[in-house]
Amino acid sequence: MATHEIRCSGCARLLFKTDGADFGCKISIKCPRCRAFNHLRPQTSPSPKRPDRDGKDPLCGSSYPRTT
């Protein structure tokens, strides 16, 4: 498994390494070098199936008649 490096967004100092496991919650880390707060949140993958829109117009949300 590949190791991912998490670096500071301000000075690029290495903060920690992870094996790619999802940590499941929001994490805030203060960089010891530049004192910047780094806010990390879990990455969610997009849903593999798009939900049905039930005839709603994607631009304004109003219903429109379906033509087939």
UniProtKB/TrEMBL annotation:
The keyword DNA-binding applies. It comes from the Bacteria. Residues 39-68 are annotated as: Disordered. This is Com family DNA-binding transcriptional regulator. The keyword DNA-binding applies. GO terms for molecular function: DNA binding. Keywords: DNA-binding. Pfam families: Zn_ribbon_Com.
